[in-house]
Please model this.
Amino acid sequence: MKKVTGLAAPLPQHNVDTDIIMPKRFLRTITREGLAEGVFADLRFNEDGTEKSEFVLNQPSWRGAIILVVGDNFGCGSSREHAVWGLRQSGVEGIIGTGFAGIFFDNARKNGLALAILAPDQRDQLMAKIGANPSTEVTVNILEKSIKVGSWEVAFEMDEVTRQALLKDRDDTVDTLKLLPEIQAYEASLPDCSRIQIIK
Amino acid sequence: MTRTLYDKLLDAHKICDLPDGDILVYVDFHIMNEYTSPQAFSGLDSKGLSVRQPEAHLAVVDHVNSTRIDEAPDPVSKLLIDNLEANCAKHQIACYGIKDPRQGIEHVVVPEQGIAAPGMLIACGDSHTTTYGAYGALGFGIGTSEVEHVLATQTLRYQKLKNMRINVTGQLSAGITAKDLIMHVIRQVGAGAGNGYAVEFAGETIEQLDIAGRMTVCNMAVELGARAALIAADNETLLAMEGKAHSGRFSFGKEHWQTDVRAEFDSEVYVNSMDIEPLVSWGISPDQSVAIGDQLPVMEQMVTDKEKSDFTRAMEYMDLKPGQNIANVEIDMAFIGSCTNSRIDDLRAAAEILRGKKVADGVVATVIPGSNATKVQAELEGIDKVFIDAGFDWRPQSGCSMCLAMNDDIAENRERIASSTNRNFEGRQGRGARTHLMSPAMVAAAAVAGKIVDVRLFTQE
Model:
């Protein structure tokens, strides 16, 4: 993934937690699939299953947005990777905020969901722009670490590890197993007393 | 070169630098539950990989199981529980299933079985893994992809955090608990202020906390955004490790698991614990709380438009009015449980308040001991009778239950709940449910009064 270009929806509230992103009733599964319907379910739907028309992603202008511009501390709370799986399955490819909770951040990196960090005033400007003109196309360019809306452009923050992970689409487990000699050498250096054996 | 406790723990577990700038760290011990591990095991299977060190993992059923019976309450829960047990059997991993006397909430079970120790690195697919900082261990939550990575490699690719120290000085007043302390810190610093940091709690107030209090503090540090929480190991830590099933089976170095005197932190926070009062959350984020004698904020205190809209949203969701007293807000339910506050110490504290009293009419009160072993201990002490006589539902099985409502304990009718848990998020305890976080003793007091009330009114009688 080199860049994401498309419709961006504003989700201004702070501290959007992973319980909101993926309510627990959708976690009762042993697969990664079928989670799109759970994304923001309590914000999107009334209890009788009808849509809440006021929710941003239900509004005609932002239906199908692939980028979210969000409040501070997005993704806080539970470690559930289901939140990221669901966002990806619902078509979201990038999220622009001022900072993300740590586990959510790592989960996003593992699943090709680009999280771009802006200063609060830049995020607010961007949110105002898309709010004023919903059909505006936003580009998150991972190669150049920039966000573009028409002629407006800002640089975003993204650590190099995350950027490379997004650009390369790698399998960490398989890559780490290539370091088996290093892992074995570390294990051999440990005293016997540091070997855990859990009682079955 | 001086180092923080976090630096030392990381140095001791570093295998090598990775080309992209991360480091590869060794995971001494890994805990799994039934809902964040299935896709990790299927990931292993699809790649034809095996578990590298099966004896260094423990699986515990705790999130979806019913606490009313020792059977799966429904077919989907059964699927998740059976899946975990089958995966563990296949890979020869210890699994404390629902009929096991050691079963309970993972972060209660692990210390109770004597597995947490200073100097360890502990990972788990659960955000509250920060709890083990209470033992001078580096514990942190991971996602399911990382669960797969630990199973296959016994390592994690790790991005070093910055160091923050929260210095807490002063004596806690009578009746003030570790829960009030950590809620006070979260309110002062803000949810999210700990993002990107490993947070060490230090100072005389922390040193005076017993291990259960330290676990409550480290447990809720994740609500600051802290990826790891730490407290230096001391005599209290070593005492807490004695007499457990795994006592003496392993130790992690003679290194003093504490921060060097002159070590520098990227951020230092100072908290005075002297004037902390019993705290109650009023909103939908754990940093939205007030002292029991205080009023809710008013709109005029909100500066930006976003703060104003967040405040309005919280008020609407919680059905409260700006500026109103938090005391005397009527409750529908009282819940004592969760990895934050369900240990024997918490049950004792709540029972002290309940002794000889009755739960108010109309309040549904439930207590779920943190583990089956905790329950047995409580029954030995007669604590179960105190709860039952007061009108609490004393559950026969342990689990997370209504802390996150993934099992059959769900608040379904917008109930208002006095809760000893850790998150007051929208919908956390059930769609529309209104959670007020507080200490277990405060929950007990609220259950008796039928409304949010200062627990010190009970202890001064």
About this structure: The longest helix of chain B spans residues 75-91. Chain B has a mean pLDDT of 97.
